[in-house]
Amino acid sequence: MSSHKPLHSQSPAHSPVHPFDSIAPALTCRGGGSILKSLKGSLKILDSLGLRSLRKSLTKSINNVLSFFSFNPNEGLKEHNNKKTPSKNKIKSVHLTKSHPTTTRLGRIQSELKAFLKSPPPHICVTVGSNLSQWIIHLTFPPTTAYPNETYKLKITFPSDYPTSPPSCYFLKPTPAHEHVYTNGDICLSLLGSDWRPTMSAETLAVSIMSMLSSAGEKSRPMDNSAHAAAKPGGRQDNWVYHDDSC
């Protein structure tokens, strides 16, 4: 038979260990001693009154709040950053170990991938699965933009005549609300059409799109979005007419 007494009947000489003892340094290092004292005092009152269920409820509530914080000896309590960030670059190893002639289409794509991995652009990472000709680009926007800490995915597919023709490039859903981005994912960008040059790269497109969205003052949609929203994304933009402010 256990010799332990119920929590609420323990004598003052053997008072229960309070769950906040472990975070005492966090609460006191920045002048939060009074907070800790109040919390422990409240629990002691509940203990003395035998209100075990209420004490348990209060303990759970406060622990839920504390779960959003971490302790740093030099900074005290800091709120956890729970924003989702894109994972690191994920590349199927064969794309880096199997060599393709640099003069071929696959060789060009492989060279671009290695260059991207060697010096990745800020806030951008890439995932490449079994097909070297299809990339998923993750764009995570800084807090100062119209898309604070939001991450969107670009699907890039390299055509058979790449780099003579530009890649197919569009946003996967959910798509960012921007005056040059249709809800189906298509992007009104001249680099995907008449302004494409073989000297450009998938990284060029990703950085340009990142810059375009980062400079947006507000979230909006193209004026003709409703007419284009049902179209299959990623088609060639040979006949698109580009303007400074609209497509």
Automatic annotation (TrEMBL):
It comes from the Eukaryota. Residues 217-237 are annotated as: Disordered. Residues 104-247 form the UBC core domain. InterPro entries: Ub_conjugating_enzyme (IPR050113), UBC (IPR000608), UBQ-conjugating_enzyme/RWD (IPR016135). This is UBC core domain-containing protein. It comes from Triparma laevis f. longispina.
